[in-house]
Amino acid sequence: MTVPHPERVDEPGAPARQTPRRASPWRGQAPVVAMVSLGGAIGATARYGAARLWPVETGGFPWTTFWVNVIGCAVIGVFMVVLTDVWAAHRLVRPFFGTGVLGGFTTFSTYAVDIQKLVDSGHPGTGLAYLAATLCAALTAVWLAVTAARRALVRRRR
Asked: Are 148 and 140 in contact (CB under 8 A)?
């Protein structure tokens, strides 16, 4: 006969051993999840405020979402240079600001919905222009921000 849990079998007469309690994986991740949540709430609130300040008419080019995404990508570029080349930040800074604030601020899901709405409302040309312009502008913004931030660091170190 086999013993189902041989690690739990004690010698007769030996004191009973307590099984060590395994730490919850959430115990170490709770601060990270909390910071991402807090940052996400801040970023999403800022994006919502931008959409309320600069509404877009139906069928028109979604300029607010376009600029939110481009500006957010530029800030991500600068932030990553600062974190990798300048500042040994606390372990919760990147989840809070990079994933939370900037992840909540930039909105590529709204970008996709805007494209679908443009196509569905009979503006496929505008939708296609928006698709290409956002992709190109966002990638260019990251590249320019990283390049400018690194050049500024080189000048500062001289």
From this structure: no
